[in-house]
Amino acid sequence: MIQFKRRKLVIATMHKKEDVIAPLLESALGVKCIVGNTINTDQFGTFSGEIERTQTPIEAAISKCTAAMEKYNCDLAVASEGSFGPHPSIVFVPADEEWLVFIDKTNGLKIVVRHISTNTNFTGKEIKTTTELLDFANKVGFPSHGIILKNKAIENKRIIKDFKDPESLIKAYHELNKDGAVVCAETDMRAMNNPTRMNVIAEATTKLIDKIQSTCPVCNFPGFSITDAVKGLPCSLCNAPTRSVKAYIYECEHCNYKKEDKYPNKITAENPMYCNYCNP
């Protein structure tokens, strides 16, 4: 069985994500966290657009882990990557999608978790007046939550961020608005400037810990988790299959052992209101 207690683990971040990740990992796994904050994680892409994000979130997080392990001579690493946009299944609702990657190089272990939350202030708006700017700032929770200002000029495009007070925010707006240039305000989604996002990263870390501590019943390798959902729970009235889950499939990435967990929601038949035949 893999042991993590007293091992050194590097958190690959330059945006203070260790504030929520480190206490949870140290308490649950017994590791000693160090911060890989001299790794320029912005090289893998930025939210504000200065550097294009060319990798998938998982690829970017793996790249962060790899760079941190090499620089800090460490065989354990954690990194996260977030993306923001419409919720994948709830129309018109913005969402924070966080990916966490945990790598144990010595034991050939890589664990990935995805966590989606609607708890986000992610938004943006074209700003035409200082009144609109201050209304936007109030809506997104400034100054505890950061704001990024951009002009929309194709040439001489500028981005200004890291404001600490309304005065500096307004000054930057007027600077970008010279000659009538269109100015856009966006929420700053970097973790250290967005406490709401930091809370979601903490939730994702808890999910990561649960997955690490879920071990295969055959080989005891960490990361034994759900890889598929079998739908078709029968309707309690007509017995036709519904879209509800009747089983989860657990699989070990190490030895490929699979386990079917039937009726995970503790019911063997679904309410007819969820049946396409009884309630089309």
Account of the protein in words:
With 280 residues, this protein is α+β, with helices and mostly antiparallel strands. The chain has three domains: 8-120 and 193-213, Alpha-Beta Complex (Maf protein); 124-188, Dna Ligase, domain 1 (2-Layer Sandwich), CATH 3.30.1490; 226-274, no CATH class. It is built from five helices and twelve strands. The chain has a five-stranded mixed β-sheet with strand order 2-1-3-4-5, sandwiched between helices. A four-stranded antiparallel β-sheet has the order 6-9-7-8, covered by helices on one side. A hairpin with a 6-residue loop joins strand 11 (245-251) and strand 12. The mean pLDDT is 94.
Q: In which range does the helix fraction lie? A: 10-25%
The CATH superfamily of the largest domain turns out to be: CinA-like
The pLDDT mean sits at 94
- How many domains? The number is 3
CATH class of the largest domain: Alpha Beta
The 3D shape can be described as flat
Name the beta content range: 25-35%
CATH architecture group name of the largest domain: Alpha-Beta Complex
Give a quick account of the main beta sheet: strands, pairing sense, barrel closure. 5 strands, mixed
Give the spatial strand order of the biggest sheet. 2-1-3-4-5
What low-confidence regions span 5 or more consecutive residues with pLDDT below 50?
none
Task: Report Rg.
Answer: 23 Å
Run of helices and strands: EHEHEEEEHEEHEHEEE
CATH topology of the largest domain: Maf protein
Keywords, separated by commas or semicolons:
Maf protein; Dna Ligase, domain 1; 5 helices; alpha+beta; 280 residues
